[in-house]
Design a protein that fits this description.
The structure is a homodimer of 167-residue chains. Chain A is mainly α. Chain A has helices at 3-20, 25-36, 43-50, 54-66, 89-116, 124-151, 157-166, and strands at 41-42, 70-73, 82-85. Chain B binds a DNA duplex (30 and 30 nucleotides) through residues 24-26, 42-44, 52-56, 58-59, 62, 79-81.
DNA sequence: CTAAACTTTCAATAATTTATGAAATATATT
DNA sequence: AATATATTTCATAAATTATTGAAAGTTTAG
């Protein structure tokens, strides 16, 4: 496999993985393009490379910046804006995990808590609803806490966390 | 909040969470309906409850069965088929984690491995591609291993894993 | 201040995904 | 075997989501 083929394979794989996880294709592809680029890229270059429109590029770059994994780079003497992504995979994972917890997990946990706290009217179906949503609440909270714990450790957290677990 | 409201809130929240994570709404809703039901439900009852068509119900039940989280229940004397979902949240999480690893993570890891193994032609861009995809490969493999480790422990694995990590 | 370079917004459109419903198939009952 | 009941399939419709491109908005340079 040559460079070009490998690059395309990487970008398209990442794009479709994104889709599978509820992230849109262009967004995932822009990020992966930046991830393997040796230098910051301009909007023009991204459009060109991925064959997507200006509007699409602009909107998805904004989203990536909202997620905190892409930043504008100002290059002296250049009028255009350039973009880079977080290059450290662990840092990247940390950002994504944090954001996803905040945006998606936490609100659901809140609702599970509310639902599992309804008044027990003594009927079987109410008991079941309370019991099951309570169990889900506990699981979600533990999983979320665990995630944050793992992710908020210093360098090499993942490997070290894994070692701990294996013991 | 009364039973009916709580129930609807739970089902619709679960449905939209599903959507966010690349699982379709009907599938998530059927599963959540079964999850809080006190007895197995027939296709008829599911359709009625969620106001979805017969075809939709049939297709999504099949998918849930493919995922291994819903099973057919044969009720003596009944001609219809009835369905239940795994009621134990930890067992449920285990199933989902395993399947997701097998279907989605493993194939991507494979591709990352391939891409990161291309011949180093000495150019900067090739070096970067190799370096970055290698880092991603390592991360993905560690994360996947960790997931499986956590999930393949006996009862209360999650709480116990968390305790280990806190120490 | 004005013009050029560049970016953002957003209505229109395209692409993709999901849902419907009726015909086809399968299974059970008499 | 014939009939009734139940389930699946699949072409088509509907809904949702992503993309385009051109107009509007910004910023910088002269």
């Amino acid at each position: 496999m040559e460079y070009q083929e490998a690059k395309e394979k990487f970008i398209s794989t990442w794009g479709s993985l994104g889709t599978l996880w509820g992230i849109n294709k262009a967004m995932a592809q822009i990020q992966s393009l930046l991830f393997i680029s040796t230098k910051p890229l301009s909007m023009e270059e991204i459009m060109e490379e991925l064959k997507i429109s200006r509007g699409n590029t602009s909107m998805n770059l904004r989203q990536l910046m909202d997620w905190g994994i892409v930043t504008k780079e100002l290059i002296p003497g250049e009028r255009k804006e350039f973009f880079t992504t977080e290059k450290d995979v662990q840092e990247l994972a940390r950002h994504i995990a944090k954001e996803r917890s905040r945006r998606e997990i936490k609100p659901v946990i809140k609702i599970l808590k509310d639902v599992s706290s309804i008044k027990d009217d003594g009927t079987e179906k109410t008991k079941e609803l309370i019991k099951q949503t309570k169990a889900l609440y506990d699981l979600a909270e533990t999983a979320d806490a665990m995630m944050n714990k793992i992710v908020n450790q210093e360098q090499n957290w993942m490997t070290r966390s894994l070692l701990k677990l294996i013991k």
